[in-house]
Amino acid sequence: MRNLLITTLAMAALTVPAVAASTASPQTIKNLNAAFQGESNAANRYAAFSKKADQEGLPQVAKLFRAASAAEAIHRDNHKKAIIELGGTVESFKLDEVKPGTTAENLKAAIKGESYERDTMYPGFIAVAKADNAKAAIRTLQFALAVEKQHALLYQAALDQLGHNPPQDYFVCQVCGATLTALPEKKCPVCRNGRDEFKQIN
Fold first, then answer.
1. CA-based nearest residue to 56, from 167, 197, 163
2. What are the structural domain ranges in the chain?
């Protein structure tokens, strides 16, 4: 009986999955937290900008801000998952107060923020994550970088056409946040998941 119990316990131990040690440096965890907080604020800020655009009679721009807000919320959640997966701690913080300007001012502010993330923040964070071989961090940061490039272009087009913005649909991938004006033929151009992962934003 004793031998059977020992054997049973040994077999049970073999079936318990080992917890992989984090390969992320403290700097990568710090960067992920910065990205998590940044995307949390972006989602909140763009939601406020959307309401302002509606108030100014610019429903197409309002829709774009709603789509971008939804995408940033996906980045926020992906960053949080990566922090936890890599054994880090998600830092608590308070959302920034949002004081929307005019829609033109809000678009300019959005372009500035997206351009910084595209050109400086995310490339730097990805370089550190790659040095760590922190795959969960690399994945979520690369998704965000690719999508911020999309957002910068969409915001610039909206600003260029402000007041005469043509009707446009927006579709957001629920895996990576990719923000497109038409459904992909088969797969998301960013994360390569199927087109069924996209949600239309109205």
1. 163
2. 25-90+101-165
The alpha carbon dihedral of 77, 32, 152, 190 has a sign of: negative
Rounded-to-integer distance, Cα 111 and Cα 39, Å: 14
CA 46, chain centre distance (Å): 13
H/E stretch holding 186 reads none
* Beta bridge partners of residue 200, listed in sequence order: 171
14 pLDDT band (50/70/90 cuts)?
very low
CA angle (7, 11, 12) in 5-degree steps? 115
Contact 58, 163 (CB under 8 A): yes
Q: Is residue 22 very low, low, confident or very high in pLDDT (cuts 50, 70, 90)?
A: low
User: How long, in residues, is the chain?
Assistant: 202
Q: Residue 189: helix, strand or coil by DSSP?
A: coil
DSSP strand pairing (198-201 vs 179-180): unpaired
Give the DSSP per-residue string, 140-160: HHHHHHHHHHHHHHHHHHHHH
Q: Is the CATH number of domain 25-90+101-165 3.40.140.10?
A: no
Tens digits of residue pLDDT in 103-136? 999 999 999 999 999 999 999 999 999 999 999 9
